Amino acid sequence: MEEGFYWVLYAGTKLIAWYADEETLDYLTGERIRGVWHFMGASDFIATRQETTVLSGPLMPPADR
Fold it and tell me: For residues 64 and 49, which has the higher predicted lDDT (pLDDT)?
């Protein structure tokens, strides 16, 4: 998956999140996995790729005037 901002569904809530293709530790299984979601407005809260559903994206920046 391409790094960038996406609309995602997490725990029943629609959020904008930054997807980073980085390695992390799955806290439930102890396995090393790739793909982390960083939620906007929650600087210390992340979720793994498997915990979210992508609704749309990656989001494109607005066109220059």
Answer: 64
* Every domain of the chain and the residues it spans: 4-56
CA dihedral for 23, 21, 56, 37, sign (positive or negative): positive
CA nearest 37: which of 55, 60, 63, 64?
Answer: 55
Is 13 in contact with 4 (CB distance < 8 Å)? no
Dihedral (CA of 7, 40, 60, 64) sign: positive
Q: If you search the block for the tokens 């293709």, which residue do you land on?
A: 21
pLDDT tens-digit map of 3-62:
999 999 998 999 999 999 999 888 888 999 998 999 988 766 778 777 899 999 999 988
